Amino acid sequence: MKMLINVPETVVDDALRGIAVAHPELVVDVGSRVVVRRDAPVAGKVGLVSGGGSGHEPLHCGFVGVGMLDAACPGEVFTSPVPDQMVRAAAAVDSGAGVLFLVKNYTGDVLNFQMAAELAEDEGVRVESVLVNDDVAVTDSLHTAGRRGTGATLFVEKIAGAAAEEGASLDRVAELARRVVESSRSFGVALGACTTPAKGSPMFDLPAGELELGVGIHGEPGRERRPMMTAREIADYAVDAVLADLNPRQPVLVLVNGMGGTPLLELYGFGAEVHRVLGERGVPVARTLVGNYVTSLDMAGCSVTLCQADEELLRLWDAPVQTPGLRWGR
Amino acid sequence: MKMLINVPETVVDDALRGIAVAHPELVVDVGSRVVVRRDAPVAGKVGLVSGGGSGHEPLHCGFVGVGMLDAACPGEVFTSPVPDQMVRAAAAVDSGAGVLFLVKNYTGDVLNFQMAAELAEDEGVRVESVLVNDDVAVTDSLHTAGRRGTGATLFVEKIAGAAAEEGASLDRVAELARRVVESSRSFGVALGACTTPAKGSPMFDLPAGELELGVGIHGEPGRERRPMMTAREIADYAVDAVLADLNPRQPVLVLVNGMGGTPLLELYGFGAEVHRVLGERGVPVARTLVGNYVTSLDMAGCSVTLCQADEELLRLWDAPVQTPGLRWGR
Amino acid sequence: MSETALDAGFFLRWMTVAAASVDREAARLTDLDSAIGDADHGSNLQRGFAAVVKVLEAEPPQTPGAVLTTAGRQLISTVGGASGPLYGTLLRRTGKALGEAASVTADELRAALRSGVDAVAQLGGSAPGDATMLDALDPAVEALAASFAAAAEAAGQGAEATVPLQARKGRASYLGERSIGHQDPGATSSALLIAALAEAADQEEAK
Amino acid sequence: MSETALDAGFFLRWMTVAAASVDREAARLTDLDSAIGDADHGSNLQRGFAAVVKVLEAEPPQTPGAVLTTAGRQLISTVGGASGPLYGTLLRRTGKALGEAASVTADELRAALRSGVDAVAQLGGSAPGDATMLDALDPAVEALAASFAAAAEAAGQGAEATVPLQARKGRASYLGERSIGHQDPGATSSALLIAALAEAADQEEAK
Ligand SMILES: Nc1ncnc2c1ncn2[C@@H]1O[C@H](COP(=O)(O)OP(=O)(O)O)[C@@H](O)[C@H]1O
Ligand SMILES: Nc1ncnc2c1ncn2[C@@H]1O[C@H](COP(=O)(O)OP(=O)(O)O)[C@@H](O)[C@H]1O
Ligand SMILES: [Mg+2]
Ligand SMILES: [Mg+2]
Ligand SMILES: [Mg+2]
Ligand SMILES: [Mg+2]
Asked: Does the ipTM surpass 0.90?
């Protein structure tokens, strides 16, 4: 598998140097692997910190900026970052109003953020953590690591970010973030596997004419393999999987997310099918976002995330945001 | 090759329906294949119309909005649109101030826009056309169709769009657009071929361990094939190819463009290498944009576009823009 | 050359036969285009000629000239790409040259096709030898002086003669020397178009 | 069980042997992880143990406890993923339990490892049988009562015993029943770690 890289070992550092030149509004500490908005800490504002393995760009580094994250901590490709990064980020963004860690539910992310929270508190930073776990392909039981955090992370970071920007307290921002988590569910599908620089070959074998249902964003295989389906059938399947676990009584935010390797042309067509199913199921749509936001390197495929949005969440969703990956308003 | 589609025949219509649901600020006429900003025609404003084959998203439909295009005409995948579309678009966006056609230099686009211009003028619309031809991989001689239009299209649409938004006259906007064209050059590289829905298999065979230098954005093979190179080597090659044809005496706008199938993580790393070469060659950089903007379906690879920007071009580049694919300011 | 009068029915048959032939050969045309172009020539013409047949069936024009101008306009409105305006212009200009006569002779058709082909050359800024559709169309018009069959034969040979040529127009020109060794897709579809003309003439004779 | 006193040098050797073994087996660990995880376990530990060796060589700690707490801290700071905090905690807690003694007995090491392994279980919320590193570590500590060789043997068997198990913790748990039939990468690396301990002990005896 050919990649646009120098050597696998420097992929993340190289990307951080690129982010630095493309986004002068961010401070990129390549050595420590922390990306911080340039005006941090913002006086009186709760600091939002997220992070996780690299390979999901624009998540998380591309969501640092006004109205979203204050800092992001990128790990190696598909490997959660180490506590030192989060501790440093927390120190950089804490204005005294406390810091919220937004953590995708993977054992590695959970453990590293947990250690970081302890260390940061030792240094006098007040830290709250919110776990994002939206992927209905994984059952949330005692006998699993629980639902994965995937597309809903974007909703949580955006909405919590807007609240923090407005000056909400740490408890309030954390409560809103938890509400978004509870209101959001996702389902993902792969048409082809991704290739990590370290491995250099596709992470799983997907024969021609088959697709993988219920994939995560780390190139893990899914739970079921089926003969290839049309966009229409995939939309039916994914939306129904989400609705089996989320019964929206309010209009939903819809994220039609590309995994990285699927052309935007196809993704828009898929978005139309998602809207069609939602209409057929009687679910009204408040807002729709289509694009490559929570990716899995060059994986071909898509995911659907729904978030049932009350008026407050909707207002915060619409609030201005200015990051490399998400921008509107003002 | 698996695709997230229903049937190849409806791919463009399906995508247009998706664009309609995702972007209520645009009017999408699926039947006529014209995408227009909702407030068109804007009184006193020159109307900017572009278009071309589909498969390059967000170009062009994703660049319709305040500060950029007034309308876009998407053709079939990699096939230029038909004159009827441009005539309809021109009528929809003409406020009386005239319409500018921004045309990428491909025989099909040139001929269809040319016919459309004649027809629109017959209907009383004043039309000017500007040809974008930035790809240095193709020599511009009597014995070729001339340099292709690729990445510079984004610079032209953005800068001409900003001037039109400010109320510049048709002649003035056209003159600025031509200045951007003259000041811009591109070079593209493919690590893997793309697959069109109609063909269903990769457009050319690229053996493992080789890359294709000097590719366009239609899955055409390039001019030269070489053993695989590192990001560093590719940046050297691409930037030097551009600089052989453009000798910037002013700071440049840099577009580090992904072809669609290359992860953003890798693209940022490549962006860092492009900056390094430019530094080594003594070319100062004014602005850098990294991302998938002028794509070729799922082609793996990238292109580099430089535009030598005087103060006026730079000011217009920085002006507010609000489109699905490019957004900043205000 | 036969002096049979060619009426609107003949021209409708030409278009129908051409549409069927393009439909049958679409995959081959696209394959040729994928080697040196962008893999859409077959589907482009398939879409275009299907639309042509549809409009001609819905409201069959009454004169040879009207059949071709209608067909040409329809190609322009539905094909796109380089081939849409070029084939559209070929048929439109040929049709215009035929005027409003209810039927025309083969010689009149040949003269009209000449002006159609010249219009293609002018619009495309191209000449025979550039490895384009002109390499099939141009010799076909010349050979039409002898017979329809000779025209079809000349068009086929013209298409094959593009193989060793370096493309100088259209997308294939981007390949420079790498375009040598491939048959031009547009020349190939032009050969189909002229072969369809010969087939329509055969059917005419058999009547 | 031998009553040899194990000094800081012994623990430094353990870590050096472990690092070499992880380096050698990195591709295999990553392959196992790619079957049921995300294909990074090998490179994760390679990066981590390389950092451990570097820091231990730069400033070799003077006591067994300090060697292990330093190594554990270094793993936490460089590995990431699930295995970083888990292996880091294993070594840190084991090291803490060894206290500040200049040398320790094998029995003291076993007791310390017990508390290290318990800390892993607590941090991970996991138990033997979940198809994780605990399936190698837990039986290894038990077998250490007999000998280092027995511990290595038990860890290897424990790793193999994860093959028929359904994973209930970590990334592999997402696969549900599809995780059955694969050897857990973390259990495999744990077996390497314990084998490295036995090898260090062999070298100690050979001295
Ligand atoms: N300038 C030109 N003059 C004459 N024929 C041309 C010219 N440019 C392209 N063609 C013809 O058009 C054919 C390609 O048609 P098609 O694939 O449908 O359009 P596109 O190249 O836009 O994808 C070529 O094979 C060639 O025969
Ligand atoms: N909760 C847990 N308890 C014990 N061990 C675990 C747990 N979660 C994961 N592991 C171990 O970690 C290993 C995976 O490590 P690694 O691949 O480096 O991290 P990640 O899963 O984050 O990519 C698994 O094979 C398993 O042995
Ligand atoms: Mg990992
Ligand atoms: Mg085309
Ligand atoms: Mg073509
Ligand atoms: Mg792993």
From this structure: yes
